[in-house]
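Appendix B, record 7
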Amino acid sequence: MDMRGLLQMGQQMQAKMNEVQETLERMEVTAGAGGGMVTAMVDGKGQLKRITIDPSVVDGADVEMLEDLVLAAVGEAQKKAREAQEAEMKQAAGGLTGGLPLPFKIPGF
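Structure tokens (predicted):
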């Protein structure tokens, strides 16, 4: 492949990466804990966007349980976001290389 081809491939990769980043920012991933009493919503990058708490679990005498449920819900939502991010990156990488094996590993793919 000549230099022009490499440059074009680099530009295509950059455009695809920008597209993937925008997709991840728009993505919403939700997970719950305590049978759905606490839910957390994160974007595709894992940034926490919203917490929803069922009023029935708000008990001043057991704040520790509520804290645990919030941590569990946020952790699970972030895990799902990481999995979605990995899937998006793999899909983007496959489209860019056309299935050709590259002689080096591209960071993030």
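Remarks on this record: The longest strand covers residues 28-33. Helices lie at 3-26, 63-97.
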